[in-house]
Amino acid sequence: MTQYPNATVNAEDSINLPPFPNCYRPKEIEVYLGDSCSDSAYHYKDGKWFYISLENITDESVVQILVDDSWAYIQAGNEVLLDRLGGAVLPEVPNLRILGISN
Length: 103
Fold this sequence. Notes:
This protein has 103 residues and is mainly beta. Helices cover 10% and strands 32% of the residues.
């Protein structure tokens, strides 16, 4: 996927890691929306979403999720390049209006 070089490299770096076990509750989650984001669009740590930045969204067709410092899920276009989520229990992403953020 030369159209998404960073997503491809990130997926290749983690492809041989095992999926997360059942009922695994991540301590930290970073969600990147784009192939070459300087920072995450969503950041979850220690039980709460504490950072959401719509400015860090560069391309919504690329979703890269970092869980506890390792790539867990990467989708580029319509293709899932990596899915290690396994039995991880992910928190619900908050509604932006509830947080007082408009898009």
